[in-house]
Amino acid sequence: MHGRQGIVQDIAFRPDGGEIAGAGLDGSITIWDVAKGESQTILRGHIGPVTAIMYTPDGARLVTSSVDGTVRVWDSNFERDYFKAARTQLKEELWTKSNDPDPTRAAVQFEGFLYALSSLRKHFNVVTGVDMDSSGRRAVTASLDDTVRTWDLEIGTCQHWLEGHSHGIFGLAVSADGLRIASADRAATIKVWDARTAQEVASRTIVSQEPEFERGATATERIFSDLRRPTISPLRFAASDRLLLSADSLDPAIKAWDASTLELRFTLAGHRTRVRNLLAAADGRRLISASDDGVLIVWDLITGRLLVRGGCAAAGNIAGGLGAIGLTGDGCIACAWPDETLRLLDPNTLAGTAILRGHAGRIVSVSASGTLVAATRAIEGGTIVDLWQGSDPAPVLSQRFSSEHVSAVCERGGNRIAIGGPSETLTIRDFGGNATMRRFPMEVSCLAFAGGRVVAGNDIGDVFLLELSR
After folding, report:
1. Does the fold of domain 127-205+232-467 match that of domain 8-114?
2. Yes or no: is domain 127-205+232-467 CATH 2.130.10.10?
3. What fold does the segment set 8-114 form as a domain?
4. Are 322 and 312 in contact (CB under 8 A)?
5. H-helix segments, 188-295
6. Are 331 and 350 in contact (CB under 8 A)?
7. Which of 50, 82, 146, 464 fits a 20 to 30 Å CA distance from 160?
């Protein structure tokens, strides 16, 4: 077989015998088709000679190591490195886990550890959202490939593949009982699905109230017609899963839809600017909403009545929009304030109970559960994650990351936090009695944490499940 110039350092057969991969001194890897005897592709990326090469046992990935000190993992289509994080120096945990001096075999073994449930399939574009039902046994993911997928976490397989959206899915919600899934796309269409049968239950497209353009409208008119379709975010089930709540970019009123039919039940009008965050209280009766003008409102979802209004604007504090909100284990509202602090508020009066201070930077997301409260901050050149535990106003963790869009998710009812990003190593920290930290060389775009499991999606459509022992 031809197709390479120079010395071939190592070769490997794919387990089914259909391909041969050859590693060379020039840092490239050549893939040959055995039946045709022809070179299929040449993989380039290592900056030094490739020292070893091996396929994973299922043939789905090719693992290569180099004198440049990196291990790279390639997917079966050889479109790109499987993980950017795999290009970093071999981590100490990898050697501890494998006890194998050969870097390629160590990487393969470590992959097997990471993907214990290897039958999870992938989306074909960026995974934009992941959520779980309250039992932690089912996960749901959404993607720019216009599909929603449900995953059985007990056996690690994709249950259903829900199709019908267009223009990419950005909104996702799962009912507490796990029987309903809601999704929203960039075409301003909301869909509700039956999670058991994978059938579409209802669909509705939201547009502003201006009249539609007639057929034969100019291209410019059609562009402005598209602009009248709002961005729908967020979506939340509430009131014992009888209601689906939505906020959008064109209307400051919150819409309450029938969760089965998507008929509009009522609207909650009280904000003057866009509502960015919705949070259903644990009792299912109350809703907390936060808007761009710094207003926080608690609503009664049974009567549709405004119960209490607060926030930084109402309190006469620093002007600006409120950031993300979350509920702590004892029921307090954790709200990102414009002065870059995190405020804990009484859910009945919205009076402040504590101020949590951390690193400087605008808080873009909040996750709270049990005794933990986490906040991610946008800073120049990266992200900061602050973590508070219990009543201590000082963070127990303040960690800087070089990439943007880092996710930090607290374990529901637990003491662990998962932190990951598009070019970061996924880290699981346990702040329980025996403080531990584990690292996994994988990049993620979104995370969910429940029931001792972490479900993550990444920018190339992969969905991963990590089983974490207690």
Report:
1. yes
2. yes
3. Methylamine Dehydrogenase; Chain H (2.130.10)
4. yes
5. 219-227
6. no
7. 82
Which residue is associated with the tokens 């702040």? 431
- Within 214-270, strands assigned E span 232-238, 243-248, 254-258, 264-268
Residue 28 is given by DSSP the state -
Q: What are the structural domain ranges in the chain? A: 8-114, 127-205+232-467
**What is the rounded CA–CA span in Å between residue 122 and residue 152?**
14
SS3 404: coil
Q: Which of 370, 301, 291 minimizes the C-alpha distance to 338?
A: 291
Number of H helices, E strands in the chain: 3, 38
Dihedral (CA of 355, 449, 324, 413) sign: negative
Q: How far is CA 285 from the centre of its chain?
A: 27
Six token digits for residue 300: 């009664």
CA angle 244, 249, 253 (to 5 degrees): 55
Nearest alpha carbon to residue 388 among 404, 406, 370, 401: 370
461: left (phi over 0), alpha (psi -120 to 50) or beta: left
pTM of this prediction? 0.69
What is the separation, in whole angstroms, between the first and last Cα of the chain? 51
pLDDT by residue for the chain (470 residues), tens digit each? 555 545 677 788 888 888 888 887 778 888 888 888 777 778 776 767 877 787 776 777 777 767 665 556 676 555 434 333 333 333 444 444 445 555 555 555 554 444 432 334 467 777 888 888 877 778 888 888 888 988 887 776 778 889 999 888 989 999 988 899 999 998 899 999 999 999 999 999 987 544 444 444 444 444 444 556 788 988 999 988 999 999 998 899 999 999 999 999 999 999 999 998 999 887 778 999 999 888 999 999 999 999 999 988 644 444 456 778 888 888 899 998 888 899 999 998 999 999 999 988 989 899 998 889 999 999 998 999 999 998 788 999 999 998 888 999 998 878 899 999 887 788 899 987 767 788 877 788 888 887 678 888 887 777 887 877 65
Strands 138-143 and 127-132: antiparallel
Is residue 275 within 8 Å of 321, Cβ to Cβ? Answer: no
